[in-house]
Structures are given as structure tokens and as C-alpha cells.
Amino acid sequence: MKKLQNKPTRSVVHKRIIFSLVCLVLGFILSYSYSLSSSKKLSGEPVSSKYFEQEERYREDLILQKERNKELSTELGARQQQVREIEKSLSGSEEQYESLIQEAEDLRLVLGVLPAKGKGIKVQLEDAEYNPSSVNPNDYIVHESHVFQVLNELKISGSEAITINGQRLHANSYIKCNGPVITIDGEQFPAPFVIEAIGDPTVLVPSLQLTGGVLDQLVNDNIVVTIEEKSKIEMPAL
Q1: Pfam families annotated for this entry (predicted)?
Q2: CATH number, span 116-235
Q3: β-strand 175-178 against 224-235: which pairing, if any?
Q4: Would the pTM count as exceeding 0.70?
């Protein structure tokens, strides 16, 4: 007798076909994913390239912003000049306008928003030579109190604008002593301290040289003082 072979039913054949299709699709997906990953690795693109590109964009934006700030600063100066010209044009109408305009100019000089130019004086303050017999080194060092003495006398005597080592002073300037240096509006300056003031030298010099005045007090504190008249001093605006 012949043995009967069991033939697969239609449902079994159908399932096998579906299973083969699923395996084929999965194989294609895995192959495509692997090839895509390999191509990215072979491209040699660094992982941090996006970060450097972003940093470069920020740097370019910063440069553009600085240029824009410079343009705005120039435009502001031009606008201020226009305002001053308008004020001067109005001064011819009535006499009181002229005094108001002059007062406004004086205030701008005090605030430091205008460049200053004119004759004046230069005062230089230097530390005295080292004295081995002195126990306290502060006995021959220039301090902020000495600088304040000169500044106050110059302001009282009518100086229009003042600089210390080239640093323009304004109405809210502050001076602080830090050992051998002084800090002016956040900037540090070592001795010697050169103070320039625009004003009438025939008034400023005698005010410092009064008997028992600023000059005598500085000399008593072992400060080396030099006073010089200047025919022309120029100071930039802040």
C-alpha cells in the first residue's frame, strides 16, 4: 500500500507567503537604515560642525552690531551738533537766549559730552624718593586725597574741563586709591599723576600757589609737584 502524503492547505500557504513578504520588507528597511548610517559616517562631517557654524553666525552678528553702534554714535554726535547750531541761531533773537545757551554749553563741558580745547595748566604729582628712615611708606606716596586737593582748587578757580593721565572727568566721576595706583571711573593709573585743566592760567596757577594753600600742603606731605602753563590743551569727549 502507498503512504499518503499530507499536502499543505491553502491557509498555510497563504501564511507562508505573508511571512516571506514581511521578512523581505524588514530586510529592506534594515539594509536602507544601515546604508544611510554608513554614508553619514563616511561623509566625514564632524558632529560639532553645527555648533561651530552657529558660533560663526553669532560672531558675524556681533561684528555687525558693533558697526551699527559706531554708526549710531556718529549719528548721535551729528544730531547734537545740529541742536547746538539751532540753539546758536536762536541766540540772536533775544539776549536771554544767549545766556541760556552758554549755560547749556558749560553744563555739557562739565558732563564731558563735548570735546574741550583751550589754554590751561598741567599739574604733575609724583611720589617722593624712598626714605629708609621712614617707617610708613605712605609718607612719600601720592594718595587720592592729594589728587582731590588739586581738583577741588581747580574747580573752585573756574576750570572748564579736567583730565587725569588723559582720563576725562565728568560730573559723576569717582576716584579711589589702590596702593600705588588710583582708580578713576574703573580705570587704574600709576604715578606720576598728570592733571590737566582748561581755564585761565593767570587764575589757576596763583590759586594753587597761595600761601598755606594746596601747593604748600602737598610739599609738606613729601609730594613732588610740578606746575606748568599750557597755551593749548585738547580733551576728547567721553
Answers
A1: DUF881
A2: 3.30.70.1880
A3: unpaired
A4: no
